[in-house]
């Protein structure tokens, strides 16, 4: 008897899950490096000066990665600060003279990566600043001036060896000035005080105008010829008076800006007789322009200081 053995082979197909090729999003490339731009050293000549930096992250295959957190730090905030502290860009601000480094850092699976640039801050002498802004004195009065050497952003130089400015007067008969900037008024008139200094091979200077007038309530004379005012341009103080004396022929005195308390002398087109004496009081600081409209070109100016 013959025996027949039947062997059945069953093949079982196992279904496998999806792969990167089935339309899914591939994982982002691992961050490998960060680079600061511009990559050259940053140099600042003033305090408070700013410069922008950006950083770019690349993966191991060289591709640019955009969703990686970049942290910015400075080794010395007293020399340069960074803000914001995170992001693809930051602003560096100089805060003091010296040297430091700015660092951009990213985290990776096996630690961190960073890039660094050097920062140097060295103020450069750009100007001399004088205060106060205006000097108006009575005779024998004094005013202390202060002057400082500053950089291009008007920040005082914070460097060793910065000299004190030298003060000089253009008219010592009107106003004298001490080596430390103390102005002493002597007599009525105008003078210019100059503060100058040389530092780092650079010389700069600044000036301040000084007006000296007699005490408030003083009287100043203005006369006339046939077609002009005599001593017609005057500098006085608030409360002082001008005494107009009409001479030679008929004249009027018509004010435009900042008129005196008593108003014009005469009226438009009408002069006052020879020998007329008219006193006018100026109680408001400013410039008072006036004219005689009977005689063309006959003008004067009263400058009234506080």
Describe the structure.
This protein has 306 residues and is an all-beta fold. The strands form seven sheets. Strands 1, 3, 4, 6 and 7 form a five-stranded antiparallel β-sheet that branches. The chain has a four-stranded mixed β-sheet with strand order 2-9-8-5, with no helix packed on it. Strand 19 and strand 20 form a beta hairpin.
Largest beta sheet, briefly? 5 strands, antiparallel
Topology order in helix (H) and strand (E) letters? EEEEEEEEEEEEEEEEEEEEEEEEEE
**Approximate strand percentage:** over 45%
CA-atom Rg in angstroms: 40 Å
| 3D shape | elongated
Poorly predicted segments: 1-21
CATH topology of the largest domain: Immunoglobulin-like
Figure out the total of helices. Answer: 0
Give the helix/strand class: mainly beta
- Structural domain tally: 3
Termini separation (Å)? 143 Å
pLDDT averaged residue by residue: 88
Please state the second-level CATH architecture of the largest domain: Sandwich
Structural key phrases:
disordered N terminus, Immunoglobulin-like, four-stranded mixed β-sheet, single chain, elongated, 26 strands, five-stranded antiparallel β-sheet, mainly beta, 306 residues
SSE blueprint:
Blueprint: E1 31-37, E2 42-44, E3 50-59, E4 64-65, E5 71-74, E6 80-83, E7 89-94, E8 98-108, E9 111-121, E10 127-131, E11 135-138, E12 142-144, E13 146-150, E14 166-169, E15 175-177, E16 182-185, E17 189-199, E18 202-213, E19 219-224, E20 229-230, E21 233-237, E22 241-245, E23 254-255, E24 277-281, E25 286-291, E26 299-305
Parallel strand pairs: 2-9, 11-18, 19-22, 21-26
Antiparallel strand pairs: 1-3, 3-4, 3-7, 5-8, 6-7, 8-9, 10-13, 12-16, 14-17, 15-16, 17-18, 19-20, 22-24, 23-25, 25-26
């Amino acid at each position: 008897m013959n025996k027949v053995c039947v062997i059945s082979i069953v093949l079982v197909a196992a279904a496998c899950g999806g792969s990167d090729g089935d339309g899914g999003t591939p994982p982002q490339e691992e961050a490998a490096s960060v680079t600061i731009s511009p990559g050259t050293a940053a140099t600042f000549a003033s305090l408070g000066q700013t410069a922008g930096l950006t950083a770019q992250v690349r993966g191991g295959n060289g591709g640019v990665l955009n969703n990686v957190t970049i942290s910015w730090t400075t080794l010395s905030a007293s020399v340069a600060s960074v803000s914001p502290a995170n992001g693809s860009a930051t602003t560096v601000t100089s805060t003091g003279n010296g040297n430091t480094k700015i660092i951009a850092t990213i985290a990776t699976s096996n630690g961190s990566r960073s890039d660094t640039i050097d920062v140097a801050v060295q103020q450069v002498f750009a100007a001399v600043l004088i205060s106060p802004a205006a000097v108006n004195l009575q005779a024998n009065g004094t005013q202390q001036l202060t002057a400082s050497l500053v950089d291009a952003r008007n920040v005082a130089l914070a460097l060793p060896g910065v000299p004190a400015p030298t003060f000089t007067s253009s008219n010592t008969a009107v106003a004298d000035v001490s080596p430390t900037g103390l102005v002493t008024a002597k007599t009525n008139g105008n003078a210019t005080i100059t503060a100058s200094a040389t530092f780092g091979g650079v010389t700069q200077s600044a000036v301040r105008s000084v007006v000296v007038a007699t005490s408030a309530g003083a009287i100043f004379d203005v006369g006339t010829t046939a077609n002009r005012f005599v001593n017609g341009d005057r500098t006085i103080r608030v409360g002082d008076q001008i005494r107009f004396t009409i001479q030679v022929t008929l004249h009027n005195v018509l004010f435009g800006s900042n008129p005196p308390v008593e108003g014009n002398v005469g009226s438009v087109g009408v002069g006052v007789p020879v020998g007329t004496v008219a006193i006018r009081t100026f109680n408001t600081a400013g410039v008072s322009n006036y004219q005689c409209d009977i005689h063309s070109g006959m003008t004067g100016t009263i400058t009234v200081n506080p």
